[in-house]
Amino acid sequence: MKHTIYILFCACVMLLGCVSLYADDDCDLALQEAREALDDGNYQKAKDLCNYVIVVCGSSYGNVSSLMADVKDAMSPKLTLSRTSLSVGPSATTEYITVSSNRPWKIKFGSGAMYSVTRSGNQLVVKINENTTSSSRTDYFKIVTEDGNKEVKVSLSQSAPRRSQSTGTSNSGASNRSTSSSSYSSAHTPSATIHDVWVEHNKYEGGEKGMRIHIKMEVVNLNAKKCRAIAYFYDSNSNPLVDRNDSYRTTDGKVSVGKDFTPSYDNSTFSDFTMFMPYSELHVSYKSTIRFFVTLWNKSVSPNKELTDSNWMSFTYTPSSY
After folding, report:
1. Residue 101: beta bridge partners?
2. H helix or E strand, kind and range, residue 274
């Protein structure tokens, strides 16, 4: 019969805690108990049992080396997030963050005036409320392991509502546009959706070097109504860039580029609507991160009605003279 004798193993291998001391032929049983202890989260016991097997049966016995590596990995708490900062426009939006951890974790400070965050499996669902104030705002929440050994902060920033239209003109040529007709919407309210925004850098138009902004969008119930797409530009801290030559600007003097369009159907899809922004009109003289988003406006009503915003886009700008 196999006999198990409990002793203070730390006395011989400098480890704390009581472990099971087995006869030499019981190393397999020790490995089994070590695996069970690892699965139960009892990492110190698992480590002690692995060390016992190494001392009694050798480091090459069974899978003790691999098991010990798993134990050491588990003993070091890990907590990583796919994103640790969110920067959004003023409209309400939902963002997602994936959490990876070898420990149970929880949300700390899970709600505020600006946001709420909930958990869905290993994913965070962050709902950011519409910014109805007159200024940008910031907040944060934390993800912490339940044992308190690891903590990650997620910073939130939201820009102020934009209501200024662009007076700047775009020098781009005609955009590639495709339109499709569908049955008239039962809800006659004009609306729009920006499906995608992408950028080509270092392009030339009219002798100017700049960026060509592409927009895939859909507008509804705006047949034959004048609309406008505008890109608003900001620095890395979400401060609007300031115009310095009364060109490519909003009515309140901030850097932007805009272009009018008129849908031809009740439901019109623009697969590649383009605007061109010369780099010189950014009025930035140093290497920096520039951010922008696109807003679609209904210009057929007074005051003009904001239809929708895109997500933030960002790029690193280096002036040619830098």
Report:
1. 79
2. strand 267-278
